[in-house]
Design a protein that fits this description.
By secondary structure, this protein is an alpha+beta fold. 27% of the residues lie in helices and 45% in strands. The chain has one domain: Nuclear Transport Factor 2, Chain: A (Roll), CATH 3.10.450.50.
Amino acid sequence: MSNEQTFLDLIATWEHGPRIFNQRVRELFSHDCQWIQPGIPTTTGPDEAIALADGMQTMGISGIRVIVLAVASSADGNTVFTERIDEIVGPEGTLIGSVPVAGVTQFRDGKICSWREYFDTAALELPS
């Protein structure tokens, strides 16, 4: 499977909640993978990424539906670029909000070693 397809499969698991997503993060993140989202704490390694993903539930987020608008890979296939809409879903499956995201994901030896996402964090302000 290409790195591009691996990444698309990973973000598709978000819709089903943290359990499956976290399992894939544990399999796919390198020990030193940095997940960088300006305005949100940067994580290093799978354990910190999983803790961040688990924290979404305390914010009332049960999943994220990802609508991929564009995807491309570098010539060597080790960098995946995405443009997408992340639809944040609440416990009852209701749409809480939509966030446009641009991302760059880098792979090393079949593992994600860097994942950078850019979006307006104001769009994440959830109703209280």
